[in-house]
Design brief:
Structural class: alpha/beta
CATH class: Alpha Beta
Radius of gyration: 17 Å
Largest sheet: 10 strands, mixed
Number of helices: 10
Distance between the termini: 44 Å
Mean pLDDT: 85
Low-confidence stretches: 215-242
Strand content: 15-25%
Number of domains: 1
């Protein structure tokens, strides 16, 4: 198996770490069959990749063997944002979906103990055909037998259809919302779209929230009624008291 290092993994403040740990523990209560989890958002720049990467690390830190799959095949920024480095030729998920690589050619062992990544080595303008082919499902089936959890960082729901297709392969989804930025109607539409896939919505993560504002209480109260789990982060990534 190839090696990959993550150069830009920052140390998080204590309260952010605790908030993400609460999310990790809550997901553990979702059931033994919830192992493959999509992490998405309504629009870009809501913080889904931050949640995906740090949740992945925390799951690995407690001893789970965890795979993070970069599924933003159109416009991946994972390599540049998190500083993914390897001394070997980079081969990623697109190579596998195009039948140019085997599963074990694209899974990288990282410098995070128990943490593994499938990166995007080359973006493609229209990956719909690749995602609709049988190889994506085959990839997840093979990986399920090798890992305790699989996290899939997908494009935003409001941008392209990729996340909806990927959701059909998953045991559940997490929806990340940027407080004060994402219109409520757009969030409701995202929930409706995910429900159509018949994939359980495991939780809602409200990012950069100031819960003293009335509008943010709407998000909390609305999704609490439906049993969705919410985590609230402040403007600097710090969790605000509820």
């Amino acid at each position: 198996m190839k090696d990959m290092s993550i150069e830009n993994m920052p140390e998080l403040p204590f309260d952010v770490t605790e908030s993400l740990n609460q999310l990790r523990v809550s997901l553990g209560f979702s059931g033994e069959n919830i192992k493959t989890i999509e992490i998405t958002s309504s629009t870009p720049n809501e913080g889904k990749s931050f949640v995906a990467m740090n949740l992945w690390k925390m799951m690995a830190d407690v001893g789970n063997r965890v795979l993070l799959i970069d599924c933003d095949l159109r416009n991946s920024e994972m390599r540049s944002k998190w500083g993914l480095q390897t001394n070997e030729e980079l081969v990623g998920i697109v190579h596998f979906l195009a039948a140019k690589a085997d599963v074990y050619d694209i899974v990288y062992k990282t410098n995070i103990a128990n943490g593994y990544i499938i990166p995007v080595a080359a973006c493609v303008p229209n990956p719909t055909i690749l995602l609709e082919g049988k190889r994506f499902g085959e990839l997840l089936e093979v990986c399920k037998s090798q890992f305790d959890y699989i996290l899939l960082d997908t494009p935003a729901l409001g941008s392209v259809v990729d996340a909806l297709k990927i959701a059909t392969y998953c045991d559940g989804s997490l929806l990340v919302i940027r407080s004060g930025e994402t219109p409520r109607k757009m969030v409701e539409n995202s929930v409706s779209l995910l429900n159509r896939t018949e994939t359980p919505l495991l939780g809602v993560v409200l990012n950069r929230a100031d819960t003293s504002k009335r509008g943010n209480n709407y998000y909390y109260n609305h999704y609490y009624r439906y049993g969705y789990h919410g985590e609230y982060y402040g403007n600097n990534g710090n969790k605000k008291p509820k």
